[in-house]
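fold description:
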Amino acid sequence: MDTVKSTAFKFALKKTLPIMTGFLFIGMAYGMYMHQEGFNFLYPTLMAFTIFAGSLEFVIANLLIHSFDPLSVLFLTLIINSRHLFYGISMLEKYNVAGWKKYYLIFGMCDESFSVNYATDPPKDIDQVWFMFYVTCLNQFYWVFSSMLGGLFGSIIHFNLKGLSFVMTALFIVLFVDQLLRENNHFSSLCGILVSSILLIVLGKELFLPLSMLLITGIFCIKENWRVKTHESN
């Protein structure tokens, strides 16, 4: 590994270590859950590698033991992962890179990789593209390896898995607070909290996420248009 790649890898490893901790718990819980549903370790390993969407994988695990209904799976997938549409829009500029890395970055953009790659501005001596690539690669490795371990240990480890899912929630709270402290203007953070909270109360947990994303996007489009018009008039 040359100096450019090595430096980017070390910085990415440092940034993703907290995510590794969260993935270790949740991934193993997922692997053990799959074992409890009657699947050997190959199933969670392959699903973690190809689907790479934690919340969806838990849902798919439950659907696999019921009658085959591809339309329901498609609908649930679109609802659960609808937030990735907005992740993609936010990363259009950063992921506009040449070569094969672009396609892997798009495929591997989970919540955690998006959070780190979007919020982190690497030092000038670190190549940003390689940094984003290694962040994505390391996060996928953490998830696949943890899921495999959970599947392997599922037959010998028995304990109550309830509550482990809060590990990732806690991680996102930490990432949000860190971003909040570094913001010069808190409009985006406060807008996200307010809109999501109102729609959660009004619509319930099944529908609030995609509609919150749409409404927040609309608000920012209006705000940006107003800013541009104000700037042009001046």
